[in-house]
Write the structure tokens for this entry.
Amino acid sequence: MYCWTPERAVTLLAEHLANQNLIKHCWAAEGAMRAMAVRLGGDPERWALAGLLHDLDYDKTKDDFPRHGTVTGEILRGLGFDDEELLHAILEHSGNVPPESTMGRALYCADPATGFVVACTLMHPSKRVAEVPVEFMMKRFSEKRFAQGANRDQMRMTEMWFHITVPDLLCLVRDGMAVRSREIGL
Ligand SMILES: [Fe+2]
């Protein structure tokens, strides 16, 4: 298998994504997925790479959502990437195919959680992801109008699939993201 380093992935993200905030979101997912892998017994480096690359095709599919995830697979296979399980997890995160693998389900739940944690961090006086208390996040979680784009039902699936409660998920994601504080800028 070709060796895919985070550096190579970052170069690719810069080629494909125009929005710096989206690249930061990819780093947030990278950190979150590493933490999810540690909790769920996955390979942290592979899961982190899935997080980093999961929205690679965003600009190409934002007006064609049914192809979100599929196009990432096409791009990466075209470059010799052959970790099909990882590519399938990326496809699953979009919900365009049912999330059934452990890695895909983890990404499906962690993706909206990263956006939610960013929104909480921006609201918190510290503006530092590592310093946002779980109580603060759970209070925001119950506020329907707060960070409406962060799908609560998608995050809640972590309870059914992994027996990880929402507060536990938010702490995992927050702590995973804190490792990438420099890249995320929070
Ligand atoms: Fe995403």
The CA atoms of residues 126 and 148 lie 22 Å apart.
